[in-house]
Fold this protein.
Amino acid sequence: MEGILNQLPIGLSIGAVLLLIALGLTFTFGQMGVINMAHGEFIMAGAYTAYLLQDFADRNAVLVALPVAFLVAGLMGLILERTAIRHFYGRPLDTLLLTWGVSLVLQQVARDLFGAPNVQVLSPTWLQGSLGPMPYNRLFILLLAVGSVVAIWVYMNRSAQGRRMQAVMQNRQLAATSGINTGRVDQRTFFIGSGLAGIAGVALTLIGPVGPTLGTYYIVDAFLVVVAGGLGQLRGAVIAALALGLLNSYAEFWTNASLAKVIVFAVIIAFLQFRPQGLFVLRSRALT
Amino acid sequence: MRNAFLRTAVGAGLVLVLAACGGEPTESTTGGGAAAGGDTIKVGLLHSLSGTMAISEVTVRDAELLAIEEINAAGGVLGKKLEPVVEDGASDWPTFAEKANKLISQDKVATVFGGWTSASRKAMLPVFERHKALLWYPVQYEGLESSPYIFYTGATTNQQIIPGLDYLKEQGKTKIFLVGSDYVFPRTANKIIKAYAAANGMTVLGEEYTPLGHTEYSTLTNKVVQAKPDAVFNTLNGDSNVAFFKQLKSAGVTAESMPVLSVSVAEEEVTGIGVDNIVGHPVAWNYYQTTENAANTKFVAAFKAKYGDAKVTSDPMEAGYNAVYLWAEAVKKAGTTEVEAVKKASGGIALERPEGLVTIDGETQHMYKTARIGIIQPDGLIKEVWNSGEPIKPDPYLKSYPWAGSLAS
């Protein structure tokens, strides 16, 4: 019985991890339609940022790394968008291949810079221990996820930039005719989306391996959340991430890890049969 | 512009296809013989240099390159220098089979040193048997195999897993929980563990598998903690170990309350896992960087000199390093690199290696090895706390263990 109860916070914390890794994608994939396979490598960049900052901040590197990783991954995303992706807008398959190639290149760069073995990122001493069945580091990730969602919501709905972003998302042509510089908005969207991946990467150093292939472990799950939640839908991503986290937690508890994965995929496939557009649908008047 | 690019791409594709076709053997099926021509002997190194297994396999390749370099510096083999041909198995089992084929048919290597996961070995096995070529496989594995074209320089189960269980039993840990990655090594290893447990009054409280590359261990940790075992027997492979130990520690599990005995975590992995998270837990191997003898002092010094002071040496690296020396010794004894002659000459070859005396068992093509249990220290190295006293005769089918009767089928 205690085991079953413990699965509830565990499910929430799995959901929080899913949400963190998928948040950035709701921007780049959900809003701009770019299938960014290199998203996982931006997560990896965030994790390595925490690793490097240990030299300056020792065990508190994780905290210091949050804003720095946002900038580092964001800038990487911005460069990718400016130099390559913008030439491929409206050609999703080409973008997919392009970004997949970029992800392989980034993995190799990480391997050359930091070596193939995983590196050690020490977690802060104040994150050791647990509150009931919920370890402090999981709680930290949960709070970080909540914080990120709130920050994004405020940005999207309360700032001029965010509203312009929504305008472009809903109807690009009309936004352009109203004088919005859509290219500039795209850059900003990509910067924020990639930056969020960096934040996720820092958080993942607390619970997972930090190595060149880190991104590959999370990229599929990230896309799952975005697709199930509905493209570009913040609340969709939140609900989908928590639902998948809980489903995963209980499916694994009652069966095993391999089967739980199958169950999660089966449920998502079945769900998409009924709601191909995901949980929430963006209502748009754009002629696409 | 775009057309020119397309043409180049198509052209490059054609060249690749042609190269691949050209590599298929037409008449000769024996590997090895052709390699003796010229003034070098080509040997293949086939490990995952990318993907989830790269973390472990790159270091084995490094150790093998070091052995080749040392042998060349000492005059080579049969008066010829060894020339390594390195290929990337990319953590993908069909790629291993394909690259093995390429090394044998196209590069005509005299032998191949390669593999890590059992899945990669199983994928390469038919290729080596078909071409009657030699593979030296450097990693501990689940046993129940003895291919005439593979030499196994890592431990089989009776040199690692069974000593590990003996150790747990000696420590009074009778209730155990099995955690492993979901592929052939952990599943077979756990079959053996369950048979051992049944015959030795131990109880297996649970058995859990996770896919390779799995990083979410909170549910599994919860299951383990709820089952309250005395010890966990861990056959996870690769990056999963990092996630498992980090999450186990945050759930409050310590080496004192519930030791986790690992058979795939060596010095190299400890850094990535974080010493904090794994200190005090036991591991079972045949070699540690701290193993004391002259051959090891030399090996560790040479490895650090070549690859940097921060590098550590581990059991699979040492087994890969040994493989090159053992093969070279067999070639010297045979006077040729021809596969059948090398196989015939290999039996009984005994060398003082960093892990102690290693003898090739001609019958099974496995090695006599000393089993060692170690505890992970705060400095990231492993201190031996128990050993089998003498090299154990390899018994891949566990024929000498009455309780294992039903396993070989």
Observations:
- The CA atoms of residues 112 and 212 of chain A lie 9 Å apart.
